[in-house]
Specification:
The complex is a heterodimer. By secondary structure, chain A is mostly helical. Helices cover 76% and strands 0% of the residues of chain A. Chain A has one domain: MetI-like fold (Orthogonal Bundle), CATH 1.10.3720. In chain A, α3 crosses α8, α6 packs antiparallel against α8 and α8 runs parallel beside α9. Chain B is an alpha/beta fold. The chains are: A mainly alpha, B alpha/beta.
Chain lengths: 272, 193
């Protein structure tokens, strides 16, 4: 697993430059992106029609039909809720613990060195190995919590630690001389500095926690989970179901990421 | 508060000796203007007094716990307004209305709620001055406090500091000889080592 430390400072909202972005792109970039998605769907539909073997490649129309059928069943929503609650719980636990240990590591070099082997091991070991080891330790119902937690923790820890380390020393000296209380230092000096690092970490981690969490459910054949539905689709060669459930994962992952990042940015901007 | 006494203070950065046996007494409630050419250790002296640097040898005594500073760089929290920057450093006693009133006195009435990053260099300097004056302190350290200010604002800021000093000890660092009389300060010349 590769942990990304990205500074979001350089990232610009492409939507803010509607006139000309790069060569050949004129107008609103969102419209271009929507057109690109539509084109990809058309390519998919054409490929499915040319191949004409629904076992190998179902068309997007078939997937949409299957998805709407599934959405009409109560069991579908129970399955979504089951996986969502566990994967998101793992994410939040890792987010909180990652911030806490990054804060501890930034204030004490010994803590950073002590934590280093654990983080290095989590980063280096393949997620599949962790899933199999976890199946020995935990019940299948809890495995997605643990795996999404493990995948998110090093990303949050590394980014937050990097953010804290890059805090302007001159501002910290100012706070020290003026005897600013800790909470005020956190709110007015650390958080503005941490904001791009935290947003970047959450953005990367949210995608990864869904991928790894569902993978854990597939390997662990967790009863009542999205992973189990994917496993069943494979066993029964139900390609439409496989694509439909994959679409569900993508949609939930993207919607939750957008919503969470919006709320996070909103919360961080509340400090005046 | 007692006098601030520095006795035979020495400090080097690597091979470069910045202070070599520096001694001075800053009387309680006095206003002192430390002058000297660039690189003679004026800012280093302030950093030692505020505890950000520790001398290699020598004694520093009588430094009070409550210090406020105008740093050479403004050191404002760039994402936050002028009012917030003063409020977060001024302590619990400072009321927002009073902070706004003080900022207005230095001509910042139109920029009270703008983020610091949107203020000009001179405006930031004046916010830093108000922050220093309004902080609950018994010692004010001013490192080139009027740099970047035009003549009118320089005079206005000096009058503001004098009017709100309230008997506090002031140590101002500058290389401009004309700035000492503006605060009615005693002169202390530092020589480059």
């Amino acid at each position: 697993m590769t942990t990304c430390i990205m500074s979001a400072r350089g990232a610009k909202n492409e939507n803010l430059t509607p006139r000309r972005n790069r060569a050949g792109i004129v107008g609103n970039i969102t419209i271009w992106k929507a057109a690109a998605v539509l084109a990809a769907l058309l390519v998919w539909q054409a490929a499915a029609m040319l191949l004409d073997q629904s076992l190998l490649l179902v068309s997007p129309v078939t997937v949409a039909e299957r998805l709407f059928t599934l959405m009409g069943e109560a069991e579908f929503w129970q399955t979504v809720a089951f996986s969502f609650s566990r994967i998101v719980l793992g994410f939040f636990l890792a987010l909180i613990l990652g911030i806490v240990i990054a804060a501890a590591a930034s204030s004490c070099r010994a803590v950073e060195i002590f934590i280093w082997p654990y983080i290095a091991i989590i980063k280096a070991i393949p997620v599949a190995s962790f899933i199999i080891i976890s199946l020995i330790w935990l019940s299948a119902r809890r495995i997605s919590i643990f795996i999404s937690f493990l995948m998110v923790l090093p990303i949050v820890y590394s980014n937050v630690l990097e953010g804290i380390k890059s805090t302007d020393v001159r501002l910290l000296e100012m706070a020290k001389v003026f005897k600013m209380p800790l909470l005020r230092r956190v709110a007015y000096i650390y958080l503005p500095q941490l904001r791009p690092f935290l947003v970047s970490a959450c953005s990367t981690a949210l995608g990864l926690c869904w991928k790894s969490g569902v993978a854990a459910e597939v390997i662990g054949i967790t009863n009542g989970s999205i992973g189990e539905e994917l496993y069943r689709a494979k066993i029964y060669l139900a390609t439409a179901d496989l694509f439909a459930w994959t679409a569900v994962i993508v949609v939930i992952s993207v919607v939750f990421e957008k919503l969470f990042l919006y709320l996070l940015k909103k919360a961080l901007s509340l400090i005046k | 508060m007692a006098d601030i006494v520095l006795k035979d203070v020495r400090l080097s950065f690597g091979e470069k000796r910045v202070l070599d046996g520096f001694s001075a007494v800053f009387g309680e409630g006095s206003v002192t203007c430390v002058m000297g050419e660039s690189g003679c250790g004026k800012t280093t002296l302030l950093n030692i007094i505020m505890g950000l640097l520790r001398p290699d040898s020598g004694e520093v005594s009588g430094v009070p716990g409550d210090i406020s500073v105008v740093f050479q760089e403004d050191r404002l929290c760039e994402d936050f307004s002028a009012v917030t920057n003063v409020m977060i450093a001024a302590g619990r006693a400072a009321k927002e209305d009073t902070v706004r009133e003080h900022l207005k006195r230095l001509g910042l009435g139109g920029s009270l709620d703008k983020p610091a990053r949107e203020l000009s260099g001179g405006m930031k300097r004046r916010v830093a001055i108000v922050r220093c004056v309004m902080a609950d302190s018994v010692l004010m350290l001013l490192d080139e406090p009027f740099q970047g200010l035009d003549e009118d604002n320089r005079l206005r800021a000096a009058e503001y500091i004098s009017a709100n000093r309230n008997g506090r000890t002031v140590i101002m660092v500058t290389h401009d000889r004309d700035e000492a009389p503006m605060l009615g300060a005693e002169l202390l010349n530092m020589q480059r080592v």
